[in-house]
């Protein structure tokens, strides 16, 4: 009895791949699940594919031996069109991303809800709920930025086109933007008074962009960045000439 091991993202995918390799229909094999698929930790770590064993039934083996012509009839493999239609790849990706966020929050003892908003930066997923969402935000948004990085990995694993997700919680992004704009103006005044440049602490790229944008049309000071990630900093200095 001929046997093969086939793998796939799901058990159905693994069976389909095996049938394609054997060039037979599903009625002509016995299928045994060797290993079930696993999403791993938060769908990122320890991901495992499904594995199945397909054993050709005896009549299928004998038929294959007796056929001398190389031509093989089309295999009635389960076509993709027979699957329930999904709204879209992006919609599925967003749902998977939201499940990931909720799972992370639950491990932190938080019960959250997620609202979607479109912006020029991408799709904003705004988190709200009971409990201390400050745990998800972290010091100056560092935890939120780290989670946003993972969220974008998850989203683009499930999407055929690139998705840009911006993660927010308790309107932190807007509050942080206002804080950085006020800081920019205050430090620009300091540079003008003291005539000495100011080097800010290391910031994420999107926060450095806020500083640069706020002062780009300033008549007396200018900004530039120096250093390498993750220690790249904004410098505010006097304009000359």
Overview of this protein structure:
- This protein has 241 residues and is α+β, with helices and mostly antiparallel strands.
- The chain is built from 7 helices and 9 strands; from the N terminus they run βαββααββααβαβαββ.
- The chain folds into 3 domains: 3-82, no CATH class; 89-170, GMP Synthetase, Chain A, domain 3 (2-Layer Sandwich); 174-238, Ribosomal Protein S8, Chain: A, domain 1.
- The protein has helices at residues 11-22, 58-66, 89-107, 134-137, 142-157, 172-194, 205-215; strands at 3-8, 29-35, 50-56, 111-119, 122-130, 165-169, 198-199, 221-226, 233-238.
- A 3-stranded antiparallel beta sheet has the order 1-3-2.
- A hairpin with a 6-residue loop joins strand 8 and strand 9 (233-238).
- Helix 3 (89-107) runs antiparallel to helix 5 (142-157) and helix 6 (172-194) packs across helix 7 (205-215).
- Mean pLDDT is 84; it is low at 67-87.
């Amino acid at each position: 009895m001929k046997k093969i091991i086939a793998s796939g993202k799901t058990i159905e995918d693994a069976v389909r791949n095996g049938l394609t390799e054997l060039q037979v229909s599903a009625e002509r094999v016995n299928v045994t699940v060797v290993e079930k698929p696993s999403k791993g930790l938060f769908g990122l770590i320890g991901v495992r594919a499904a594995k199945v064993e397909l054993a050709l039934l005896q009549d299928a083996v004998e038929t294959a031996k007796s056929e001398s012509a190389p031509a093989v009839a089309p295999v009635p493999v389960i076509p993709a069109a027979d699957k329930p239609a999904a709204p879209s790849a992006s919609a599925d990706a967003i749902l998977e991303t939201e499940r990931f966020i909720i799972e992370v929050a639950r491990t932190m003892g938080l019960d959250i809800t997620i609202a979607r908003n479109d912006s020029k930066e991408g799709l904003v997923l705004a988190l709200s709920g009971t409990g201390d969402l400050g745990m998800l935000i972290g010091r100056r948004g560092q935890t939120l930025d780290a989670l946003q990085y993972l969220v974008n990995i998850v989203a683009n694993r499930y999407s055929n086109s690139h998705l840009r997700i911006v993660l927010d919680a308790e309107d932190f992004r807007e509050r942080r933007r206002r804080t950085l704009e006020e800081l920019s103006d205050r430090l620009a005044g300091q540079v003008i008074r003291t005539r000495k440049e100011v080097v800010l602490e290391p910031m994420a790229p999107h926060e450095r962009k806020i500083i640069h944008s706020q002062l780009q049309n300033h008549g007396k000071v200018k900004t530039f960045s120096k250093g390498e990630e993750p220690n790249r900093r904004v410098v505010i200095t006097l304009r000359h000439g």
